[in-house]
Amino acid sequence: MQAVMCAGAGQLYVEKQPKPDISAGMIRAKIAFGGICGSDLHYYQHGGFGQVRIKEPLALGHEVSGLVDAIGEGVEGRYIGERIAISPSRPCGHCRFCQMGLHNQCLTMRFYGSAMPFPHIQGAFCEYIMLHPYQVHPVADHVTLSEAALAEPLSVGLHAIQRAGSVVGANVLVTGCGPIGSLLIGALRRSGAATIVAADIADLPLTCASAMGADKVVNLATDPEGLSAYTADKGYFDVVFEASGSAPAFLNALNVVRARGVVVVVGVGAEVNIPLSQIVGKEIDVRGTFRFHQEFATAVRFLNDRLVDGRPVISGVQPVANVIAAFNMAGDKSKSLKVQIEFEH
Predict the structure, then answer these.
(1) Hey, which residues does 4 pair with through a beta bridge?
(2) How far apart are CA 258 and CA 240, in angstroms?
(3) Topology annotation, domain 154-288
(4) Is the pLDDT of residue 31 over 90?
(5) Using one digit for the tens of pLDDT, what is the confidence trace for 90-131?
(6) Rounded-to-integer distance, Cα 117 and Cα 183, Å
(7) Residue 333 above 90 pLDDT?
(8) Among residues 136, 161, 196, 200, which one has the fewest Cβ atoms lying within 10 Å of its Cβ?
(9) What residue spans in the chain does CATH classification 3.40.50.720 cover?
(10) Which are the contacts of 236, defined by CB distance < 8 A and separation ≥ 6?
(11) What would the CATH number be for the domain defined by 2-150+310-342?
């Protein structure tokens, strides 16, 4: 089978690997589509992110969909050819965080395509992959497998909303309207937010944000003071989701969130010197959000029922043979949002 591998910055290639044998209790899937995530881009462009570095060739990818190809002994309720979205989250189920229900914080998480542990956790950009039955989620007939591959980034947005708490009737700002920010906006619209303002520094993501349900968009490149009106009287927004990973965006979130409001940090980027006096004085809650687990099933149901329509987020699809072109396309944020790789299926 073919697998998309990365051995360091700029070292991306397609490699022939043995097709995995089916084993008892497992499901083998034939991958159809895989979305290129920000972490995949960091591996390709920089060889890693933060302190994480590729130390051995790594199969990339974790946003995938496909078809059931083989069923191991003892697996019930599945059939060959079933169209599925695939959760990349594989917690151990036994550590103290799993026992607390915090599966995304698992101490031995085996999340596809991650260089965090060593040996690395190989990813899902390959023609065939072995799955636990709990990773398999059926896709409705009217939903394409390309759309189904959006379940993973939508899950990230749903978990961020869980971290914020109830957003019913809330005034919300989302800064950074790439694929996760835009899908987050769709989830916020479904979750009962009253007003959603979206901010970015490019027109393309803001156009997508509008299509996903934002009430107002602000281009901070052409209108640097576009959010300044929201700083009056100790801030306006009940919740701010910072999805750009930008230090200035985070600091501005503290200015526009109301007293006792919540800032959820979704994007990971530069380190920030936090103005503690501002956080203390306005009693702001700053909350991190990391991956997801149980939200994946909800994301698939939202896509299946068209409660969230993610199609505006997909800006391009390339065959696996053009994987370098696909990654370069995904890296050009002025022209692309979610770029996907298509495998033969």
Answers:
(1) 14
(2) 10
(3) Rossmann fold (3.40.50)
(4) yes
(5) 999 999 999 999 999 999 999 999 999 999 999 999 999 999
(6) 28
(7) no
(8) 136
(9) 154-288
(10) 171, 229, 230, 256, 258
(11) 3.90.180.10
Q: Which two tokens stand for residue 344?
A: 């033969």
Q: How far apart are the first and last CA of the chain?
A: 13
> Which residue, among 237, 187, 191, has the nearest Cα to 209 in the 3D structure?
187
| Distances in whole angstroms, Cα of residue 249 to Cα of each of 34, 50, 226, 236 | 29, 19, 13, 16
| DSSP notation for 116-132 | SSSS-B--S-BSEEEE-
**How far is the C-alpha of 143 from the C-alpha of 309, rounded, in Å?**
10
pLDDT value, residue 8: 95
Alpha-carbon gap, residue 264 to 279, rounded angstroms: 13
Q: Over the range 17-49, which residues count as b (16 or more CB within 10 Å of their CB) and which as e?
A: eeebebeeebbbbbbbbbbbbbbbbbbbeebbb
- Per-residue model confidence (pLDDT) at position 338: 97
Nearest residue to 242 via CA among 253, 233, 234: 253
Which long-range contacts link 225-229 to residues 24+ away (Cβ below 8 Å)?
226/199, 227/173, 227/197, 227/199, 227/252, 227/256
Q: Which residues contact 13 (CB under 8 A, 6 or more apart)?
A: 4, 5, 7
Cα distances from 323 to residues 56, 111, 123, 337, in angstroms, run 20, 22, 15, 16
Residues of the chain with CATH 3.90.180.10: 2-150+310-342
Q: Are the CB atoms for 239 and 264 separated by under 8 Å?
A: yes
Q: What is the pTM for the complete model shown?
A: 0.95
The number of residues making up the chain comes to 345
| pLDDT at 268 (0 to 100) | 81
How many other C-beta atoms can be found within 10 angstroms of the C-beta atom of residue 209? 30
Q: Which helix (H) or strand (E) covers residue 263, if one does?
A: strand 257-265
